[in-house]
Amino acid sequence: MRCDFCFRHCDISEGGWGWCNARTVRNGRLEDRAYGHLSSVAVDPVEKKPLYLFLPGTKTLSVAMEGCCLDCAFCQNHDISRSHHDFLPFISPHDAVDYAVENGIPSISFTYSEPLVWQDYAAETATLAKESGLRTIMVTNGEFSEEALTRLLPLIDAYNIDVKGDEGFYRDICRGELSPVLDGIERIIAYGSHVEVTTLLIEGIHTEAMIGMLGRTLKDRGVEAWHLTRFFPAFRMIDRRATSERFLSMMLESADRSGIRYIFPGNSRQRRLLLCPICQKETSPVNGRCSECGSLIEGLSHPGTLS
Ligand code: SF4
């Protein structure tokens, strides 16, 4: 049987496993290894996703199951992305949504590992969340299949999508591809959902030329918010040193030249002012609203459309 959850489109035989080792075929049906058994549940500031322009100053209920469809040598979440543990707690989509509603949390985030590989749980939870008036967020490597995009577009309000490097970077370091990610970003922005992009900068691998190229490519695809974050040693890159603040500053300057409207440093002492997309004034949002004009900030496509 063919799994259509991500760009790999694995053919899986009865009792076999997909590339991600999280999807199998049992009794002629495609199934998740551990549907609803969550590796992580937390209440986070939405800025931690990172999303700075989608309900800023609010909390989000973060949920994750194990699994990923890439194999990044630098993975900062490798303990849940490529490993599988037994006896994780079961939390149904209903339970997750009820918890958010009862605690006044305005959104649910599918995050930490790779939600594309546990897409059935994410889609069911997102459907219930939207019926309950919650917003939905997906933090993803963006290796969408066409089918996944068609399924998710009506269900997810805001995305943070990794754009990790150029084609060679994806091939050599992540065992992935850049083009499905860029095509997905373009389609999501055209649909009208909110997108922020993140690039984890590894000093000695990323270069000014690569960031310049990515900046131009993202700008052409309609991206308006880009987070450049510092790498810390992890997984198979445990021996590499952390990215310096100086290198981050150089890359931020390069990213600024792309013309992308919002460029943010991450994992850093450096801060940049947030300008309200509606009144354009410097803002410190509270409960999703601009501290200056009071407008609800809910993404860049349709800012302030909900009250
Ligand atoms: S989620 Fe992706 S990697 Fe996993 S089985 Fe499906 S197509 Fe393969």
CATH-level-2 architecture? Alpha-Beta Barrel
Strand content: 15-25%
What's the order of the H and E elements? EEEEHHEHEHEHHEHEHE
Main beta-sheet annotation: 8 strands, mixed
Based on helices, strands and strand pairing, what is the structural class? alpha/beta
Q: Kindly provide the name of the CATH class.
A: Alpha Beta
Count of strand segments:
10
At the fourth level of CATH, the homologous superfamily is Aldolase class I
Q: Please give the order of strands in the largest beta sheet.
A: 3-4-5-6-7-8-9-10
Chain-averaged pLDDT: 95
C-alpha Rg, in Å? 19 Å
Bound molecules: iron/sulfur cluster
The CATH topology turns out to be TIM Barrel
Helicity, as a percent range: 25-40%
Tags for this entry?
TIM Barrel, eight-stranded mixed sheet, alpha/beta, 26% helix, 307 residues, single chain, two-stranded antiparallel ribbon, globular, binds iron/sulfur cluster
